[in-house]
Fold EF-hand domain-containing protein.
Amino acid sequence: MASPPESPIEEVVYELEQTRVPKPIPVALEDLCRQTKFTKQEIRVMYRGFKTDLLVTLSTLLRGSVYERLRWTFKLYDLNGDGRISRSELSEIVMAIHELMGRRPHQPEDDRKARDQVDRVFRKLDLNQDGIITIEEFLEACLKDDLVTRSLQMFDNEL
């Protein structure tokens, strides 16, 4: 064990060295079954899927190219997975984000602001104005937008 610190700086370093990050406490599978009403097998399958999806997502966001990050984002907005983003899909995402940020659902003023945002974003991304956003339109519009490209570059710093 290290000797006690002699100066205030050494004391801070000593304190930091002694600090340990708490490890998550494992929860017994039986407890999870009771708390969630899932079977052991269902929990195991979901856990394996969650670990895989979370690692792929982190890999894409932290180490992927700008194109990979944009493709991941497109898939996030493409709720039904048909390769196109409709106005209703974009609206669902925007409304969910507004609710997460504390805006009240079904309030006339808040709903109007969300609809206006959906309209602005849709006009910007639906380059040929045909009522759907394809991956090609999404990539082209995002790559032309300085704010989007700067935001994506934020992830370029290593952990």
Summary: The mean pLDDT is 82. The beta strands are 84-86, 132-134. The first strand starts at residue 84 and ends at 86. The radius of gyration is 23 Å.
